[in-house]
Amino acid sequence: MLECSKIVLNGVREDKYLFRKELIKSLSWLNPQEQVKLQIWVRQIFFREHADVIEEILNTKYQSAS
What we know:
By secondary structure, the protein is an all-alpha fold. It has one domain (about 1-60). Helices cover about 80% and strands about 0% of the residues. It has three helices and no strands. The longest helix is centred in the last third of the chain and has 28 residues, at about 30-60. The protein starts with a helix and ends in a 7-residue tail after the last helix. The mean pLDDT is about 90.
């Protein structure tokens, strides 16, 4: 499921709204260990493009989705 989430997020990277939506969805589907791996990967790959979305989702209300 983690690899599927990465593929989807790569596919919607151009659309901030879809990226946000898919990041939330991915976090809700993954187990806690996969959530941590996804968070690290998202920060490494997309921080320059979507820093505001990443900070909102990973550091606030969706952080404890597990």
